[in-house]
Amino acid sequence: MTPLRHYFSLIMVLCSLSGNAHGALNVVVSLKPVHSLLASLMQDVAEPRLLLDDSQSPHDVSLKPSQVRMLNQADLIVWVGPTLEPALSHLLQRQSFEAPILSLLETPDLNLLPIRNRHEWRSHGHPHDHGDSHPDQAEIPAMLDNHIWLSPDNAAAMVRHLTQRLIELDDTHSEIFRKNSRNLLNRLHTFDDELSSQLKPIANTPYIVFHDAYQYFEAHYDMHTVGTVNISPEQLSGARHVHRLRQTIKERGARCIFTEPQFEPKLVHTLVEDLAVKTGELDPLGKQLTPGPDCYFSLMRGLADNLLDCLSGEIPK
């Protein structure tokens, strides 16, 4: 190779290395609702990558080798927390990744709610009258409900926090991130007002959910859940709990029981047998939605629409 050709070859290699080092920001996000918020924030810069596919549950997922590679290639890893994502939590603790790892439970100004137990459901008609803007961090892994995105106020807090992290990682696009953040916060505010008006007529109507994933939504919109089929996907109901739920439906006048698309609804059909109660479906993760900037809003709209549809109108005799 002549000296001139050697020189140009060296320049091409250096340019290639430089392009990799300063390429598009590679953000990997575990869950679809949070991915949606980041997709809005990163518009005109890059597309965040969604870690889990629709066939995988965050509760017990076993990541594929391609998904582990995705984490290894990331510039930032964003997840929610260990109560919702125990398998990912174990992986992040066990394996070393070069990228910074951001748990959204650490977001400033979140309204965080503790996980409820069955005693609370039996003792209180409105078991979400408590909250803590930021409890002791040591309590987070075992005690906190991780479905934080179902409160629009929490979503706004996460948007502000994520914006700062994106700017720290890629300050050359800081103005775009700030503009996208302002637009997203305005959209969230307007959307929240719309949902508040939509849900107001059914605010005091009792209903039962499949598992206890919705208390942030309930607390924000003053909804009236009176029971849950399963406390969590890991805690399946026995005959005694089924009997108590049937009593709750009768005594509290629950109008609807909601299933979820990722879980088998057979137990719900047993619960409603011979009872004047409707069934509907709620999806806290957006399993059936297309990822992207609109996904979060479609998810929240779907919850509101399905609640309104099931809780209004006539109850079957």
Description:
Residues 1-23 form the signal peptide. It comes from Candidatus Thiodiazotropha endolucinida. GO terms for molecular function: metal ion binding. This is High-affinity zinc uptake system protein ZnuA. The chain is built from 12 helices and 8 strands. By secondary structure, the chain is α/β, with parallel strands linked by helices. It has a domain at 202-311: Rossmann fold (3-Layer(aba) Sandwich), CATH 3.40.50.1980. A 4-stranded parallel β-sheet has the order 2-1-3-4, with helices on one face. Strands 5-6 form a two-stranded parallel ribbon. Helix 7 (152-169) packs antiparallel against helix 8 and helix 8 (174-199) runs parallel beside helix 12.
Name some characteristics of this structure.
317 residues, alpha/beta, Rossmann fold, 4-stranded parallel β-sheet, two-stranded parallel ribbon
Number of strands: 8
Let me know the CATH homologous superfamily of one domain: Nitrogenase molybdenum iron protein domain
- Average pLDDT number: 86
- Report the structural category: alpha/beta
Unreliable stretches, pLDDT < 50, 5 or more residues?
3-21, 133-141
CATH architecture of one domain: 3-Layer(aba) Sandwich
What's the SSE blueprint?
Layout: H1 3-21, E1 27-29, H2 32-41, E2 49-50, H3 65-72, E3 76-79, H4 86-94, E4 101-103, H5 118-123, H6 140-143, H7 152-169, H8 174-199, E5 206-211, H9 215-221, E6 224-230, H10 239-252, E7 256-259, H11 266-272, E8 278-281, H12 295-311
Parallel strand pairs: 1-2, 1-3, 3-4, 5-6, 7-8
Helix pairs in contact: 2-7, 7-8, 8-12
